Every structure is written in structure tokens, then in C-alpha cells.
Amino acid sequence: MNVTIADLLDLSHTMAADYLSQFQYPWQALDGIKELILSLGAGLSPEEYDQVAEHVWVHKSAKVAPTAYLGAPCIIGPDTEVRHCAFIRGSALVGAGCVVGNSVELKNVILFDNVQTPHYNYVGDSILGYKSHMGAGSITSNVKSDKTLVVVKGDTQIETGRKKMGAILGDFVEIGCNSVLNPGTVIGRHSSVYPTSCVRGVVPENSIYKDKDHIVTREG
User: Fold this and answer.
1) What is the CATH number of the domain that holds 182?
2) Which residues are CB-neighbours of 64 under 8 A, at least 6 positions away?
3) Which helix (H) or strand (E) holds 19?
4) How many structural domains comprise the chain?
5) Residues spanned by the domain of 109
6) Which pTM was predicted?
7) Active-site residue list
8) For each of the chain's 220 residues, which pLDDT tens digit applies?
């Protein structure tokens, strides 16, 4: 079950590389995202980043719509676009070349470089790998309905010890429109999820998720 940081994520594509390298599993990093952003922000060059509010840093090349809300702490990387009515609740580290689209909500997340969350997405307590993409209306569900602790389920089960955990997307993952990624979902590198899917557990790398009984290996 390939669910470690090394299995899923290329750390050369995030400002969080040194921080993430301390952990075996990506969800172990979720508790410290706020402190990470505060630490990184304090060291950012004012020649490259504007501090637009307390503990809110925006790269000078980023484009932020005037209707977007940037809650502290957060960092918006170079050449990233934050569109109309985006709601960044806080503790969001958004990399370079990302899209945070209209009416998208982010909370306690790390978005690697070139991640796209372009339309009506909710992403909470999650990490999205390099060039991953969430189709319109797809969301991460980060709390189980019975409020018990999240378990990552694959060939084996791993107790996370966490009440809140959304999804971990490996590099180059594609999530189809209107899909729900249930708490503890992990999608391996270069995998795709069909639109309107309800995903739970681990999807192996280089796979196509059609439904829970039909996960096929990507060819070519």
C-alpha cells in the first residue's frame, strides 16, 4: 500500500519540502500547517511578497480577485490565480502556478505547485500533489459522519489518530467533476477518478477509478 510521502509526492514542487520530509505519512503533517506557514512567511522577501494583512503573504506576480477572502495564515505563491469569491479560511499554503477558483474554499491545506481547484471545490485538511486537478464541484469530505477517527483503508488499515482528514492526492492526479473524496482517501500518482464518484480508501498509482468495484490499471 503505497501511501507514504515518498510514494506520492515530489517535494521539489513545494515550499513545504523540508517540513514534509520529517514525516512518513502525509497526514502526519496536517497538524503543523499553521505553524509552518507562519514560519515560512516570516522569512519571505518583501521584494517578492506583499504582506496584504497580518500573516497573509501574496507573491507580487499572483492575481487575487478583489472579492476573494484570504484568511490568516496563508501564503499565495508566484503566478497563482485566486478567483472571484474564493474563500481561504486559513492555514493554506498555495504553491506556484496554482488556480484557486470561483467559490472554492480552502482550509488547512498544502497545495503543491500547479495544482488546480478551479470551480466550486471544498478542500480541507488535505494535501494536493504537483499538477493535481480537481474537477468542478469535487470536494474532500474531512470528517466521518459518526465522528470517529479516520482510518486509511487499502490492503491493510492504518489508524491516523485524526478526527479530521480529507484526501491526499499524489502528483498528476485527476479528480472528475462532482466527486466526493471521503475522509482518509489517498489517490496514487498519475491516477484518475471518474466524474460523480464516491471514493473511499486507497486508489493505487497509475489507476483509473470507475467505481469501488472497478479500479483498472492505466495503460500506456
Assistant:
1) 2.160.10.10
2) 58, 70, 76, 81, 82
3) helix 17-20
4) 1
5) 5-217
6) 0.97
7) 119
8) 899 999 999 999 999 999 999 999 999 999 999 999 999 999 999 999 999 999 999 999 999 999 999 999 999 999 999 999 999 998 999 999 999 999 999 999 999 999 999 999 999 999 999 999 999 999 999 999 999 999 999 889 999 999 999 999 999 999 999 999 999 999 999 999 999 999 999 999 999 999 999 999 988 6
Alpha-carbon distances of 156 from 12, 116, 151, 173, rounded to whole Å = 29, 31, 10, 22
Q: Would you say 124 and 110 are in contact if contact means Cβ atoms under 8 Å apart? A: no
**Measured between alpha carbons, how far is residue 112 from residues 27, 130, 133 in Å?**
15, 5, 11
Rounded Cα distance, 14 and 71, in Å = 20
